[in-house]
Amino acid sequence: MPRSVNSVAAKKKRKNLLKRAKGFYGARSKLYTVAKNAVEKSMCYAYIGRKQKKRNFRKLWILRINAAIRNKGLNYSQLIKKLTNNNLTINRKMLSNIIINENDIFNKLLKTLEVI
Asked: Fewer Cβ in 10 A, N or C end of the chain?
């Protein structure tokens, strides 16, 4: 009985991996073993990058809030403390958006907190 080889699935697997490595430099996009290592490493970087993206956006929102509130005579931590004391739950992303797009609403919010 001849040996059975599942070449269809193996070719598909290699083809999909090389498709993922498309655009990589040199042998990293052409040779299977080199491409496999490059794709594995790139997937690790992508996973880490998704976590860093969330961190960086939160930093950006906090920075914007702090810059806007310093003009009013407070700092970021004082504003957050006043928000929590008044049981106002608003996330940093929305607060940052309000500061950028609806400045009059932000001023009303500060008046309710008795900041200005």
From this structure: N
Q: Which fold has domain 8-112?
A: c-terminal domain of poly(a) binding protein (1.10.1900)
Which residue type sits at 107? N
Would you kindly state where each structural domain of the chain is located, as residue ranges?
8-112
Q: Which residues contact 100 (CB under 8 A, 6 or more apart)?
A: 64
Task: Examine the pLDDT at 110 and tell me if it is beyond 80.
Answer: yes
Q: Are 75 and 66 in contact (CB under 8 A)?
A: yes
The helix, strand and coil proportions of the chain, stated in percent and rounded to the nearest 5, come to 75, 0, 25
Which whole number is the average pLDDT over 86-90? 90
